[in-house]
Write a structure and sequence with these properties.
Largest sheet: 2 strands, antiparallel
Number of strands: 2
Radius of gyration: 19 Å
Structural class: mainly alpha
Strand order of the largest sheet: 1-2
Distance between the termini: 24 Å
Order of helices and strands: HHHEHHHHHEHH
C-alpha cells in the first residue's frame, strides 16, 4: 500500500452541500450498508461450522473488506488504502499509541478490583491453552478488530463526514456500532450503552488521527488485554492463560458474563481514554474520503 503524505485536517468546516449532494452521499452509504449486510447474511451461516467466535470474526472481516473494496471501486476508483490504511511512520506511531491506550484502559478497569480484593484469579486449567493458542487467539482478535473497524468506520462513515459533519456522523454510527453488539451472548442494556460510547470514541479516534490505525490499536489493545486477565470480551469467553478472573462485586460493576464492557468501571474509564486521546502526540493525516482536497488546493 502506498503511503499518504501526512497533513493536518482542515480547520474549516466543509462547505455546506446542496440537497442533491446529500442524497448522493446517502446513496453511496446505503449501497455500502447493503453490501455489508448481504455479506454478513452470506458468510455467517457459511462459516458457522468454525464455531461462534471464528464465524463472527471472519464473516465480519469478509463482509467489511468486500463492501469497502466494491464501494471504493464503484464510486471512487480508489484503492483500499484510501479508507485510512496507508502505512507510514505516523501510522505506526498511531497503532502503538492506540494499543497502549486500549490495553491501558483495560488495566485501569481491572487492576483496582484485583488490588483491593474485589476480584481474584482462579486457576482454570485447560490442556488446549498453550503458547500456540495464545498466538492464534491474538491473530483472531486482530482480524476481528480489523473487520469491525473497516465495517463501521470505513467507507460509509468517511464519506458522510464532509457532508453531514464530524459529530453528526460519529454519534449515529456509534449507535449503529452498539446495536450491532446487542445480539452478542449475555448482552445487557449497560453493555450496549457502553459499546455505543466505544463506537463514538473510536469514531473520534479516526478523525483525530486521519487513519484507521489509531482506532485499530485502541480496539485491539482492549480486546487483547481482557482475555489475558481472564475475563469475557463482549460476551465471548476466550481462554488464553489458564486463569479466570472471579468477582466479589455485582454485575453492575463487573459486567457479569458479558465482560467489563457491561460494567460501570468501563463507563468511568472511557472518560479517561477520551482525555488520553486529546493529549496523546497524534498527528492528523489526510484522510482522503473524510477530508477531500478542494479545487485549487
Amino acid at each position: 500500500m502506498e503511503a499518504a503524505a501526512p497533513t493536518t485536517a482542515p480547520a474549516e468546516k466543509p462547505d455546506p452541500p446542496n440537497q442533491r449532494g446529500r442524497l448522493g452521499v446517502l446513496l453511496r452509504a446505503g449501497v455500502f450498508a447493503f453490501l455489508a449486510f448481504t455479506g454478513l447474511l452470506l458468510f455467517t451461516p457459511l462459516l458457522a461450522p468454525l464455531g461462534y467466535l471464528l464465524s463472527a470474526v471472519f464473516s465480519t472481516f469478509a463482509a467489511g473488506a468486500i463492501a469497502n473494496l466494491l464501494s471504493l471501486k464503484i464510486y471512487e476508483r480508489a484503492p483500499l488504502a484510501d479508507i485510512g490504511l496507508y502505512w507510514n511512520v505516523i501510522s505506526a506511531r498511531h497503532l502503538g499509541l492506540g494499543f497502549a491506550g486500549g490495553a491501558g484502559a483495560a488495566v485501569l478497569v481491572l487492576a483496582p478490583p484485583i488490588l483491593t480484593g474485589y476480584a481474584y484469579f482462579e486457576p482454570a486449567p485447560d490442556p488446549s491453552v498453550t503458547w500456540a493458542t495464545f498466538f492464534f487467539v491474538t491473530l483472531i482478535l486482530l482480524f476481528g478488530v480489523f473487520g469491525e473497524e473497516i465495517l463501521f468506520r470505513g467507507y460509509a462513515f468517511q464519506v458522510l463526514v464532509p457532508v453531514f459533519g464530524s459529530w453528526a456522523t460519529i454519534l449515529p454510527m456509534g449507535v449503529v456500532f452498539g446495536a450491532a453488539h446487542s445480539t452478542n451472548q449475555n448482552a445487557t442494556n449497560l453493555g450496549i450503552i457502553n459499546t455505543v460510547a466505544w463506537g463514538i470514541l473510536l469514531g473520534y479516534a479516526v478523525l483525530r488521527s486521519g487513519d484507521l490505525w489509531l482506532a485499530i490499536g485502541i480496539h485491539f489493545g482492549w480486546n487483547w488485554a481482557l482475555p489475558v486477565f481472564g475475563v469475557e470480551v463482549s460476551g465471548f469467553k476466550i481462554k488464553v492463560t489458564g486463569y479466570a478472573l472471579r468477582w466479589k462485586i455485582g454485575e453492575l460493576w463487573s459486567g457479569g458474563e458479558y465482560g467489563p464492557e457491561a460494567g460501570l468501571l468501563c463507563t468511568a474509564v472511557l472518560g479517561v481514554l477520551i482525555f488520553y486521546l486529546t493529549r496523546a502526540p497524534i498527528v492528523t493525516q489526510r484522510l482522503p474520503l473524510a477530508y477531500p482536497v478542494k479545487e485549487g488546493e
